[in-house]
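ok so i was messing around last nite and threw this chain in just to see what happens. nothing serious, just curious
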Amino acid sequence: MLVVTGCGNAAETKNETQTNGGTASAPAGADKTTLTIANATDIESFDTHNNNNTMSEAVLVNVFDYLLKNDDEQNKVPVLATSWEQVNDTTWRLKLREGVKFHNGDPFTAADVKFSLERVAKDTTLKQNTYYKHIKEVNVIDDYTVDIITETPDPIMLNRLSRMGAGILPSKYIEENGMEAFLKAPVGTGPYKFSKWTKDDRIELVKNADYFGGTPKWENVVFRSIPEASTRVSELLTGGVDIAAGVPATDIARIDGVDGLSVEQAKIQRVLHIIMRMTEGSITADPKVREAIDLAIDNQVIIDSIAGGAGIPTRTSVTPGNFGSDPSLYDTFEYDQERARALLKEAGYENGAKVSFSASVQYKEVAEVVAAMLTDVGFEVNLEILEASSFSEKLNSKKFNELFLLGVGNSLFDASNNYNRFKKENAAGETDYNNPEVEELLQSALQNMDLADREKQYQKVQQQFTVDRPTIYLYQMKGIYGVGAGISYTPRLDEMYYAEDITLK
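result:
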């Protein structure tokens, strides 16, 4: 039995925020000074410390700068920091760029670095706090030099400083006006300034003519939230957007058949997986049930039928190119329907095992195929498809039942990112996963400066996950993007949209 439920469209009640910092942008195609990008979901907020999804970061990198960032080959390059050195295991010294101004004219100094990093490190209510809470303090040496002091050794500090959560905020502006005022009129140092946000519809940015990196290429950059893939494709075909993310494989030929339009494909960090609740008393607390779910799913069929072959099956989310990957678990999966049925009987569910399964509308087709596969081996699936904002709300409040489908990226390029939600303190109330051996490995690896040993620790965790199965990995996704006429765009592995890297042909 397959039951499908849903929820209302959050876009029906839009919240609009606007400042006097810019004007509404023209539709894509009306002029080529405006770049318009269509995503499946909206950002969570303009607080770079309080977002927890890749699509939020992909937008915010145009407004807020990091101290350093990753280039196309994941090398660290200067942004607001011009140089850095590790003084000892718990201290990093950074030299800061001079002459940088925030969008409101305030100068960027070491005080802003101290304010930003200590805020995300000390405020436990922020979604990025768990990645930065080991920062003990930031010492201001002078206006353009800081020392970042950590409680324990941190082998990936530079990774942390080049990702969401480490965006630099204007300390004076926020201290004088408050965070609520800042969120209504956000200010960064990036190449584009905030103009307008109509929640669940669009974000409009205007160029920052005083950007330290030179005059931005675009007058306006617009990010539109369009949950339905078919609508994103239609907007691309009619010139409503210049780039459409998440193009279905079935629409590739349709786009390629239009003069001037093209499709760009590339591996992305995102791995699609099914996370399971292991709370005592829940059906998925039984390891036999979790194994049955794993064996019931044919990963390759999903890749071929839904993703059009644009995916790689995997039994780990730490894919090649990330520190700590285990190649033996990549490009492989387990599938055995008969064994899945037998396991359900052994677990005492001969007459059907009822499970709830939730997914965002952007993964609707994948969720439906998975639900059908589970039904084939004896599960009764209550499939809940949610609008993106409703899914995000339920995710953040840890209200999912037995199963939910999630696509998770990795802006840290380190295995630690993939296991943050499975550490005991974070798993409580969501998966309730608790393996003392895994917990010890994860906690030790966070401060292990012996990289060879640290790599082995994460590989042990991955092997143990194939036994415990707190989550079932489906496949590493490939990004499929529709690109409009006259636009030159190369997708990034980390899924960031740096508007300055997107140019006219």
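not much to say yet. The chain is about 25% helix and 25% strand.
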